[in-house]
Amino acid sequence: xxxxxxxxxxxVETDEQGGGRDSYEIVVAEDDxxxxxxxxxxxxxxxxxxxxxxxxxxxxxxxxxxHRPHVMLLEVDLPGDGIAASQAIRSQIPEARIAMLAGxxxxxxVFRAIDAGANGYLLKSTAQGRLPSALKAVAxxxxxxxxxxxxxxxxxxxxxxxxQRTPEHGxxxxxxxxxxxxxKHFYRRVxxxxxxxxxxxxxxxxxxAYR
Length: 211
What we know:
The radius of gyration is 18 Å and the shape is globular. α2 packs parallel to α3, α3 runs parallel beside α4 and α7 packs across α8. The protein is α/β, with parallel strands linked by helices.
């Protein structure tokens, strides 16, 4: 598979310092046998230990409860709904680190997945590229999203600041300067299980303090 131009953007600071773990235990939930074989080969080659494979949402939840892996990879279109499985897992294992796996980057699905407790949204086109490094980042406490979504965040932040600027202030440059603070506040609220829309509004409100 060729690597897509929609690469991943790791946006959030790590919760833990370092990240020198040699290997990671992972549960993979994917109902397509061909895709599962690709993911298995790529991850095992990079030192991951797949402790369980699941074919539907119920099996994913059962595997999460049984193995408590360092990270989980759930297919979005998993029978029973992969995003719903993410929410069920996080409700029973709040500290779970979960990445969704999708064939394409649909913004509604991305934000629905984040709202359900997922820590990453990875594209199948990264399976032979950055998938292992992205999953390690998620396991360490970072959030990995498709580049298209990070670009949307940048655009919206620029637009919000540009609309508020006065002639004596460079709105776009100011927006870029405060973007890391905006994203940090936004993702902290999302991780605290605040709905995405509320987290976005909260981050925008916080940015007014830096004007």
